[in-house]
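One such shown below:

_____
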Amino acid sequence: MEDLVGELERSYNEANARLSDPAVYNDHREAADVGRRVKELEGPAKLAREWREVREDLDAAQTDGDLKEMVPELEERLAALEEELKLALVETDPADRKDVIVEIRQGVGGDEAALWAADIFRMLTRYAERRGFTVEQLEASGNESGGFKEVVFAVKGDGAYSVYKWEAGTHRVQRVPETESQGRIHTSTATVAVMPEAEEVEVEVDPNDLKVDVYRSTGPGGQSVNTTDSAVRITHVPTGIVVAMQDEKSQLQNKTKAMRVLRARLYEAERERQQAEEAAARRSQIGSGQRAEKIRTYNFPENRLTDHRVHLTVHRLDKILEGELDEFTEALAAEERRSALETAST
C-alpha cells in the first residue's frame, strides 16, 4: 500500500506541475487532458493523505501505552481507507464526467414502437431532471400517432455520461397497445445510443471531409414546414456518418447542432475502436455498450422491469417510467467497479 500511495502522490504532483507549465497551458487539447487528469486524481490523493495520517496515528498508538485503546479503531479505519483507495484507483472511463448526446429510435413494432420510443424519451428526460441535469432537444422526427421515429437530445451536467451510459442498448416493452382491440400483448422495441459530447479540441474535423446539403424541412407526412432551405444534412465522407437537423428555423443553428452530433459520433466511433482493441487483449466485462444488446424488458401487465445485465427485477414500472432509475444506475455502476477491481487484481 505504501508503494501505491507513493505512486499516486507522484502522479498527482506531476499532473499539477504540468498544468502550471506554459507549454501545456498554451496547448488547449493538452491542457484539457491534464486538467481532467488532475480532477480525476483529486479524490484519490485526498484519501492517500488521510491514509498517511491514520497510519502515523496508528504507529503512535501502538508505541504509546496511553493510546493503546485507540489501536482497534485506527486499524479498522486504515483497512477501510485501503479498500476505498483500491476502488478509487480502479481505472475509470475518461468520458464519465462528460455531457452526453442521446439518440432514441423506434425499433420493431411499427407505430407502437414509435410510441414506446416517446415513452423512453420521457423517462430519460425525467431522470435528467431528477438528477439536476439540463436537457436540450436537438432533433425530433415524429410520426402521426404521436410517437417518435427518432429523437436526439443532449444532457448536460457533471458526470452525465457515467449515468446515461447504462441506457445504451435495446429497450423491449411488453404491453397491450391502445390500438389492440383483442387485448393481446405485443412486444416492441426502441434502441438508445449514448455518446459523450466531444469538445472541438478533442475531435478535429477537416472541413474538406464534409459534404453539406441544405433543403426544406418537413413534418410528419412529408409536408413542408417552412419555405426556406434551413434544414442541413452533413455527411462525413471518410466514415460515411450522416447527421441531419431541421428543428431550428436558421440554417446556421441547424448546422451547429449537426456538428455537435457529428463530433460525438466520431468521438464514440474512435472510443469503440480502442475498446475493441483492448477487448481483444483481455475480454471486456459488463457495460460494453453494444447497441444491439437487449438490456431491459418492461412488462406492463405485471408492472415489472428487468435489467438483464445485472439480473435485477423490480415491480414498480410506473415509477421507473417517471424517471426513478437510480437503483439500476447504482447496481450497474457497482458491478462495473467490482469487475474492474477483479481485473486489476489478476
